[in-house]
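Many introductory courses stop at the sequence. We go one step further.
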Amino acid sequence: MKQHGDQSWSGHRELTYAAVHRLFRRLAGPDDRLRGITRAEYADALDRAQAHQDRLLGVNRIENFRNTGRSQLSVLGPTTHSAYANPGVQREHFMADPYLRGEDNLANNTEYLHEQLRAAGTATDLPGEMRGLGAAAHALQDSYSGAHAWRAEAVYLGDPTAPVESLHIFTPSHMVGFEDGLNTHSDEFDEPPAASGSTQAAVEATYRMLRAYELGRQDPGQAELLIAQTLEPMTRASPNGVTVNLHPSREWEQERNRRLALEHGVLQPAVGPDQAARYLGAATSGPARTGGAAAARPGDHRDTGGRAAGLRGKTPGQGAGRG
């Protein structure tokens, strides 16, 4: 998923601002502050933190280079690293480590969310807190992108609890026109329509996570339980388990095309009538729409220097990170 969207499609920035807007509508005091933080301060800090996850440059250490147990330094941002070269970092974007089974990958990705929220809760200053909270928000939002994971079809109706069915593999070579037969990160999903069900699901999921975190700050003794109860329905495996899409096979391409049609409303999800009525209603009225990503337009918030460094917001063929 790219960083910056426009009026027709949403990126991480729009999802983040929409979720914070919803959070403040529900939990802020009469002065529109939460823990003394204004809405703009909270949204700007969280957005900068989540965008840091898509940095293209920066010295970092690959702890398990090519699954050999050896470490290696890199000057490229982790978002550019192949899943085969740096399997451990893939969970930061809710993608698959190719050396693990699907269920183990999902457990690993879910634990990363918990780790980052714990780090946020124990931070001693706002930047440190937002660093963990932003990393968790970024990864959770990525889980609703068809480029990173495929969920049950209810996600296209806005259901944030649609179970995870499969996870994809990222290799950067396809960004420069070389097909290595290993990449299943499909760039076509990087610009989800602002009104799509998957966009609405990502906003709602981010809001629910932030709300659980903030309620946990008010009652530290219940923080872990609140977060666990909130994340569990949104990180659940499908009844058939979780697969890893290791190769862009013909069958994978057919499924990708079908899901793109679902994302853009060309096809309708095959879900039960009760479920369809529930989520179609939520997508056309009430908080899910008024607080959705379409409401968080780039012009609605002042820009900051940190945002310009987010850098999954790129045009097709530009840059080397996973969109």
